[in-house]
Amino acid sequence: xxxxxxxxxxxxxxxxxxxxxxxxSNPNYEPDKATIVDVEVESFRTSDEKxxxxxxxNSNTSEAYRQCKxxxxxxxxxxxxxxxxxxxxxxxxxxxxxxxxxxxx
Length: 105
Hints:
The protein is α+β, with helices and mostly antiparallel strands. It has a domain at about 35-105: Phosphorylase Kinase, domain 1, CATH 3.30.200. It contains two helices and four strands. A four-stranded antiparallel beta sheet has the order 1-2-4-3.
């Protein structure tokens, strides 16, 4: 009985360690870029700021939003300055999502 309890505790500890190591704070993943429909650089005349705008669209709106969030959190995890996610409508009436990432110089 003690051996069974010991094995169960050891299994639990090992499983927990795999979860902690597998879900670290700096994940190595790339966002799925299948639905990025536009990436453009915006610069403003009044300052030297440049922003890259990532726009997502998919016929399945929830899939587009999911992929937009993945890209958004990817840039946040990299320590970049990111605007909020904006939901808007394209000229053809489709729902699109976008966010902007500030880039150096």
